[in-house]
Each structure stands twice: as C-alpha cells, then as structure tokens.
Amino acid sequence: MPIAVIENPSPTSPEILQAANILRRGGLVAFPTETVYGLGANALNAAAVEKIFATKGRPDWNPLIVHVASAAAAKQLVAHWDERAERLAAAFWPGPLTMVLAKSPEVPDLVTAGLPTVAIRVPSHPVALALLEAAQLPLAAPSANRSTEISPTRAEHVLKSLGGRVDLILDGGETQVGIESTVVDLSDITARLLRPGVISMTQLRAVMPFEAARERREGETMKSPGQMDRHYAPRAFVRLFDRTEMAEVKKEIAAAQHVGERCALLALDRIDLGASYFIQMPAHPDKYAQQLYRALHDLDDAGCDLAFIERPPAAAEWDAVHDRLRRAAH
Ligand code: TXA
Ligand code: MG
What we know:
By secondary structure, this protein is of the alpha/beta class. The chain has helices spanning 14-24, 46-56, 71-75, 83-92, 109-112, 126-135, 155-162, 201-205, 246-258, 285-301, 319-329, and strands spanning 3-5, 29-32, 37-42, 65-67, 97-102, 117-121, 139-140, 168-171, 182-185, 192-195, 211-212, 237-241, 263-267, 277-280, 306-310. It has an eleven-stranded mixed beta sheet with strand order 1-8-2-3-7-4-6-5-9-10-11, with helices on both faces. A four-stranded parallel beta sheet has the order 12-15-13-14, with helices on both faces. α1 (14-24) crosses α6 (126-135). The radius of gyration is 20 Å and the shape is globular. The protein starts with a strand and ends with a helix. Threonylcarbamoyladenylate binds next to β5, β6 and β10.
C-alpha cells in the first residue's frame, strides 16, 4: 500500500492533493493528527464511512469523531453552537479537544451511531490541516488501528494494524501528543468530561464549570459508547503495579520467564527486576503520554507475553495516562 512521506505539508502539495482526491471519491486515507493517526473518510458520504467500520472491525454502535478545518466549518455540522462551544474552540482549537454537540441533519446516522449528537474537533497537525483544506470536506476519522488495539503514533503502526486495507497513508512522523483527544459533552446544560486527554479537567475548568462523566446506571445506554473497558490494549497481558509491590513483581517475572514467557517492564526509573525487556518511561505526564503507545507497540513487536507497568503517581495531571493504562490492563 502506498505510504507518502510528507515533509512540507501544504494544501497544494502533490501527495495531499492525491489524498484529497481519494477522499472525494469515497476512499480511505490514514493521516497524522497531533494525537494519534486517524483513518479518514468523507463524513458526509455514508458508503465511505461504512468502509471505516469494516476496515477497523469497529462495532456500529461506536460513533466517530468528525474533523474539520475551523470552528466555522464545525458550526455547519451542528444544530446549536452555543457560547460554551465558542469559548472552548477559542481556547483549545486547533488542538486535542473533541466537543459533542447536537448534530445537524446533514451528518449521516452512521457517523454518530444513531445518536442525536456529533463529536467534532479541529486538529492542529499541519498534515491534517493541509488535508482538510485541500479536500474541503469534513473527515470522519477514528484512530487508524483495528478496533480495541493500540492507537498508532507512527505511520508504521498503521501499516502493521491495517495492512493493505487503506488507499493511502500520509506519513507525518511520530505524533506529538501520543494519546487520543479529550472528549467533552456539551449536548446538555451541564458540560461533562467524557474521555480524559492531555487537555485536563483543570484546564477545562479554567474556561467554564465542568463535571465528570456521569456514572452509567444499569441498562442505560453509554454516553460515550467508545469508552469500553478493554481498549488500547497490546497483545501482551498487562499487569499494573505500585512501587510497594516491587518484590512480588520480581518474583512474578522470574516465575514467568522460568516457563519461557517473555516479560517487559515499563517503569519511571531505571529499576532492575530481571525482565528481559525494559523501557524507562518519562516522569512527566505529557511526555509519558507521548511515548506510551509507542512503548506498547514496541513491546508487542519484541514478542513480549507479559508487560509489567509501574503505575504513575495518583495525581490529577496523570488522569489521562491512568485511564489508558487501566484500559490496556483490562
Ligand atoms: O485524538 C483523537 O480523538 C483521535 C484522532 C484521530 O482525532 N480519534 C479518536 O477516535 O480517538 P476514536 O474513534 O478512536 O474515539 C472516538 C471517541 C469514542 O470514545 C466515541 O465513543 C466518542 O469519541 N464519541 C464519538 N461520537 C460521540 C458522541 N456523539 N457522543 C459521545 N461520544 C462520542
Ligand atoms: Mg480508537
């Protein structure tokens, strides 16, 4: 499958124009955003959007995020654009914030999984912006990986997960944020955080009052259906541990390796617990987020069966990382 390396992204560069043509004809293009690589299709073409679900093996009840070039373009896709959306867009767009708003009838039900709301964001990656500009289309784009697998932070990860099933991959290098966007719900009078990301609750609350996601009651439909427990998971079995458990972890690693299982250790310091594969993770939450999925891809590629991952500190700035680790370990 063709991979085009994009060095100087512009809406008129040949690879971007080629990608825009593929999208206009209803094809699939994987492209970098600042968070993770997305698998894009024309959001207004239900047949093209259907290909996203088929290619990812994504359940049809899990709605997609629509990417647009500007807040003005976002307004075209929603029923109500209120002052809260205006303020959040001014504060965080282009950037890793997704807003859920009442949808306009123009947005196909397939995109929103039948929900009356649509999730929208303006990405900040220059390749994504050049592509949106060239295509002049809203792009539905989930992360460019098979459903439940780890999101891609490099073009090679897309290739590994989706193989020849995409018409074109735009390679814009390693992504800078590394985990998926913060998702907020503005479809109700109470603004809520649905998925934590590098734009934190503290930053959101500096703009307006925000509540945590509502706990789901028995039998109730999920407010953010993509928040399944198992997600972002490597092939390896993940065991999270605290510093206080080091002695036990050392024994577990020894026992597993004794029966021929390959163990990876991800820790915040250079500690030796006898694992055959070791990655030291950054002690800063944003840097940790940037490297997390790459580390999970790498330990899978190294053939590890078990991954022992040290839990970062239990502080609010680590919320998004804790969320992804919890899902990886489920
Ligand atoms: O950073 C990102 O957001 C990346 C890049 C490619 O932009 N995209 C991404 O897409 O992570 P995906 O499909 O992997 O995650 C979309 C999330 C899911 O949790 C989904 O349930 C939620 O957004 N979502 C989409 N539409 C929604 C809606 N109408 N209401 C509530 N949640 C919604
Ligand atoms: Mg995803």
